[in-house]
Amino acid sequence: MRGVSALLAQLLVALGVGSGVAGAQTYPSRTITFVVPFPPGGSTSLVGRVIADRMSQLLGQSIIVDNRGGAGGTVGAKAVAKSEPDGYTLMVGYTGTLAIAPSLYRSAGYDPRKDFVPIGMIGSAPSSLVVHPSFPAKTVAEAIAYAKANPGKVNFGSAGIGTVGHITGEYFARAAGIRIVHIPYKGSGPAVSDLLGGHIPMSFSPIATTAGNVKAGLLRGLAVTSVRRNPLLPDVPTMIEAGVTGFDAVLAYGLVAPAGTPRFVIDKLNAALQTALASDEVKKQLELDGTEITPSTPEEYADFIDKDEKKWSELVKASGVEPE
């Protein structure tokens, strides 16, 4: 009986391995969806579409980008977390949904460590502090002085509650000792559109969505939120250079799948993602968006998400924003 049981166990293992190999060979066999948890026009959408186009070519299947905005990205994130873990519904991960929301919302509806499987990192980029040309401040120091002279009367826009722009703005206000009023939008695109129209004087928005308008003179760039200047706006100083000590708040992008997605699917997607990021075409497009490419293994991205969530939970606390 022991011999029969051992043989049966071996057969089951062999069948399992065989099904995995077969699955790896046939995946993907239909269209893949990349969920971007924000409306079109924002930086996450821009990055997601660049990656989707190249990975589609590499995988031999169509990849559509599905923009599902709402609640600072948590609507789309929850939808992906509850999706079938078959490799056909993925999310373009972003600092706001994977690192900020768990601290900002008492119940975000998902756990970034338990409900998602990391596929790999894409890159990182700073936010930018930009103002309408009619705003009197031409430097960060002047903006701080103006806000101190007009407490609670200066508004700033962001992609929504719980986004990097929101928390970065609150963090800036706390660091500078000023009171500014947050105006949430349903994405970076709408926020920048209202800023261009003069409906708000200031915004913390991803550099990808503001650089073109700054170069065209339609907006004034006061600072970027990284510790180094960004090639997209080389003449715009960092917050640290502008006098805000130790200021560092960059956003990161990556690709994640629902928990339970088979390992062979994750490996195949990671290989395609890394190949895409190594292509000259993708490098050029992401650099034009101000994104620094940082490819990784699934394990490295998991470690990054863990550390990033801890970092931003501290920034949420430092910003003074109360959990919702």
TrEMBL record:
Source species of the chain: Bradyrhizobium erythrophlei
Span of the signal peptide: 1-24
Protein name from the UniProt record: Tripartite-type tricarboxylate transporter, receptor component TctC
Keyword Transferase: no
SUPFAM superfamilies according to UniProt: Periplasmic binding protein-like II
Keywords attached to this entry: Receptor, Signal
Alphabetical list of CDD domains matching this protein: PBP2_Bug27
Domain of life: Bacteria
Family: Belongs to the UPF0065 (bug) family.
InterPro entries: BUG, Bug_dom1
